[in-house]
Amino acid sequence: MAKARLLIISALVLIVYALTSGATQYIVGDNSGWDISTDLDTWAKDKKFIVGDVLLFQYSSSHSVSEVTKENYKGCNTANILQSSSNGNTSFVLSSPGDRYFICGNKLHCYGGMKLHANVENNQGTGSPVEAPKAQPGTALPPRTSKSKNPDVTSSAILNRVTIDYTFISFFGFLVLLFGVK
């Protein structure tokens, strides 16, 4: 009986850990994707990229995605790239803290705003939560702006929360439950 109770508590701890940890997979541009019509600056504005997160670029055959240096990002220089892909479904793991820069391989698209700057932060906690800013009486929210013709969707950080280790931990917990009780 004590062993079964310990097993159940362990499984619950593993499930809670799996639900609260792991990386987030961001679909760049949400439903609009990596496209000239997507307002990528607005999309990235409220995102907090953490080491281990994944940027998933989904795009048509008229586009590509290239990781470049800061200088190449500013000038939309497509000649000297760090890595590139044109398969329509490209993932970049944000494996270290610092700034990452992505542009479309079509220079004119890059000049049109099809580029993304991601500031990647360490995944270590800050110690204490920060209080949310207080609303000022009599103020209104600014009007929404978007180049996209697609309807407003909830942020990909919410819709596409992916815990990379969730499947592994769940499977491990299942095996412990299945074979650990005697």
TrEMBL record:
<keyword id="KW-0732">Signal</keyword>
<feature type="signal peptide">
    <location>
        <begin position="1"/>
        <end position="18"/>
    </location>
</feature>
<dbReference type="Pfam" id="PF02298">
    <property type="entry name" value="Cu_bind_like"/>
</dbReference>
<keyword id="KW-0479">Metal-binding</keyword>
<keyword id="KW-0325">Glycoprotein</keyword>
<feature type="transmembrane region" description="Helical">
    <location>
        <begin position="163"/>
        <end position="181"/>
    </location>
</feature>
<dbReference type="InterPro" id="IPR039391">
    <property type="entry name" value="Phytocyanin-like"/>
</dbReference>
<keyword id="KW-1133">Transmembrane helix</keyword>
<keyword id="KW-0812">Transmembrane</keyword>
<feature type="domain" description="Phytocyanin">
    <location>
        <begin position="24"/>
        <end position="122"/>
    </location>
</feature>
<dbReference type="InterPro" id="IPR003245">
    <property type="entry name" value="Phytocyanin_dom"/>
</dbReference>
<dbReference type="GO" id="GO:0046872">
    <property type="term" value="F:metal ion binding"/>
</dbReference>
<keyword id="KW-0472">Membrane</keyword>
<protein>
    <submittedName>
        <fullName>Cupredoxin superfamily protein</fullName>
    </submittedName>
</protein>
<dbReference type="InterPro" id="IPR008972">
    <property type="entry name" value="Cupredoxin"/>
</dbReference>
<feature type="region of interest" description="Disordered">
    <location>
        <begin position="122"/>
        <end position="152"/>
    </location>
</feature>
